[in-house]
Specification:
The chain has 3 domains: 158 residues, no CATH class; 60 residues; 121 residues, CBS-domain. Helix content is 57%, strand content 13%. Strands 1-2-3-4 form a 4-stranded mixed β-sheet, covered by helices on one side. It has a 3-stranded mixed β-sheet with strand order 5-6-7.
């Protein structure tokens, strides 16, 4: 994600924090500012501890997803929470349920550990339960920190279990629906429900006093549900078409002895952005548009052999694979082009642009078929 900084790769997953995260530290400091500089430092520290819990929550999702063979591109921490970006969405009810439930389960475990530890602290200090609750409004102390974190983890569980897709509760709702309904139908119901709940949240947030954070969350939930519904519609359409019927059968290609100048000529005289590099009938790699432009910007770039700027690692797919399978594969491989093969060998290239064009055509074909079917209905 742009404007984010790397915090490392725990479990082989990129952990990043958005630059706007600093706002949450200022918010924490302001909440305890009445207790002076020490209170402000305490508040900022509490926000860091809270987002440590949020990070563990996201790793709960990510590690279960990896166990199902779903790649995890990165985890990003934002002022409104964290997000684990998966290479693809789960398309089976059991996977959806397990991945969605893993995050809140982590917070439940954290809350249980804090509850046990807090009980020990209260017994040692002689502080009563009422006094512990009062610690939420007290100055910086160990009891204040533990009680606050305990309540915040409980709040994370309760909030995330709201059945508003794409919150965890909404994903669990879709998973449960998916046990009894087709996945596309389950997604449609879950996302529509999520948008209704998001609209209700927005109305409540606009009531005096204005609640800007809740309003922002409502907008994110509404747009996230809409995006997921569009994604599922695309998956449904693309799963019915084979890549062997959609790859570019008239594509220009480059010989291994060609230079960047030839690729530049092709860019200028065609709408094709990517070119196969061939040795006879064998594919060596793919030259991408951006690599051609980078080479042209360098001194003597036109004379560079294309084999020096090609990508040899673009995915290879069978002509019988569905367009949806290829689209997901390209998303996980961080490459927009795949080489298509059948039993005879290399056939050609298919790109994300080709798949998007096929999706548009197939969507209109389905609309036409639906309209034709409706027109044939007799009253």
């Amino acid at each position: 994600m742009r404007w984010s900084l790397s915090l490392g790769r725990p479990f082989g997953i990129d952990l990043r924090v958005h630059v706007t995260f600093v706002l949450i530290l200022f918010l924490g400091a302001s909440q305890w500012s009445a207790h002076g500089p020490a209170g402000m430092l305490f508040g900022a520290g509490m926000m860091l501890l809270l987002f440590t819990c949020v990070t563990l929550h996201e790793f709960g999702h990510a590690l279960v997803a990896k166990a199902y063979g779903i790649s995890v591109r990165e985890i990003v921490l934002l002022p409104i929470g964290g997000v684990a970006l998966l290479g693809r969405n789960p398309d089976r009810a059991g996977q959806e349920l397990a991945i969605a439930a893993a995050g809140p389960a982590v917070n439940v475990v954290i809350a249980l550990v804090l509850s046990i530890a807090l009980g020990a602290v209260l017994d040692t200090s002689g502080m009563g339960r009422d006094a512990a609750l009062a610690a939420l409004r007290a100055g910086p102390s160990l009891a204040t920190a533990m009680v606050w974190l305990l309540f915040m983890n409980i709040a994370l569980v309760v909030f995330n279990m709201i059945p508003a897709f794409p919150l965890d509760g909404g994903r669990i709702f879709r998973g449960l629906l998916g046990l009894f309904l087709p996945w596309s139908r389950a997604t449609a119901i879950a996302t529509r429900t999520g948008q209704v709940i998001a609209a209700a949240m927005a109305i409540f947030a606009l009531m005096p006093p204005l609640k800007p954070v809740l309003l922002l969350i409502a907008v994110v939930v509404f747009l996230g549900a809409a995006s997921t519904r569009v994604e599922e519609q695309a998956r449904t359409v693309l799963s019915t078409w084979r890549v062997g019927d959609a790859y570019n059968k008239h594509a220009l290609w480059l010989d291994e002895r060609d230079t960047v100048s030839r690729a530049a000529d092709y860019l200028l005289t065609s709408y094709q952005p990517d070119f196969a590099v061939m040795r006879g009938r064998d594919l060596l790699g793919v030259v991408l548009r951006e690599r051609v432009l980078e080479a042209l910007a360098s001194a003597g770039g036109q004379d560079i052999p294309v084999v020096r700027i090609m990508r040899p690692d673009c995915p290879r797919v069978d002509a019988g694979a569905s367009l949806d399978e290829v689209r997901r594969m390209l998303g996980e491989a961080d490459c927009r082009v795949a080489a298509v093969y059948d039993s005879r060998g290399y056939l050609g290239l298919v790109s994300l642009d080709d798949i998007a064009e096929a999706q548009a055509v197939l969507s209109f074909m389905q609309r036409g078929a639906s309209a034709s079917g409706a027109g044939n209905v007799q009253a």
